């Protein structure tokens, strides 16, 4: 499954680079997301089946956790370099080439993990997958994200009749989903996300935490980039270089987390890392335009990956400890989907707030008006970080430590 998903990811990545219209880019980007969703849950199963509980599993999850936030930051850096030099398309070409090499290497280096079944794959495809549940959730989230995307340029669009109808349909589908899950379980049929999964308080807490955590991370990276380029007026390349602090800190945090995870309570790791990351949006919300990079922007970028990197590793180890092997891939898939949804919602909400504040101001100076909106977005990100602190404190209080070696 991982190999298939990774090769599809390569195909759609290259397709984005060759796209000629915005519609093509959006379409291939959607398929790209579907392809990578085949890899993320599988990674949890591969790690838990390859490494026994203990230091090496902790290191494996830490390295896996480093991939998402660090990859996003590295993408910003390389994207800026390519955009200002040989063109933005080469960012996708290079990513496609690198992923093709990694996908090919994985054929020989990744272990084979099979779930025994007497059914042929064609029957498993039709009988062991909750297709209707997948359609309900996909349509609900798709409609919700469409409405949120429409409001990013102007909050007034949420009052359009079309958007109101789509929002109501989305909410109704989301409300219907748990009843469908219950119905499927009662019939002993496959359920996409069984309601029983949410009864594990630690799992529910980490999912809620990672939703707001990823919303914060995406938001601060996006609006810090806008601050550099739209307010300070520097190039994409110069902006990308400023994110090196983000990458360095993310790497160090993951290495430290691999060591601390079996020695420090997950509640402590979650709360302390979230408190540290809370400083980042405050620095950007109170920054003076034109201020020296080393005063506020550097420290904001330096501190912002702390909680996402810690939380991702902690969450995967909580999942591997809380669920049996046959459920871990499902739980990992749900966790990753929540993280990606938080990414999208966070960006849409903060962009809407920033646009709303800027539109309401009558200040003539364009940069100053933009900055007022950005400050509002950064304070919203601060609120999201504060929610992570609260959820981690109360939701993980019984979590203890994870990742200890079995005797």
From TrEMBL:
The chain crosses the membrane at residues 7-28, 34-52, 59-78, 90-110, 131-149, 161-181, 202-223, 243-261, 268-287, 377-396. Keywords: Membrane, Transmembrane, Transmembrane helix. Its main location: membrane. It is found in: Membrane. Residues 1-400 form the Major facilitator superfamily (MFS) profile domain. It is a multi-pass membrane protein. InterPro entries: MFS, MFS_dom, MFS_trans_sf. It comes from the Eukaryota. This is Efflux pump protein. It comes from Trichophyton tonsurans (strain CBS 112818).
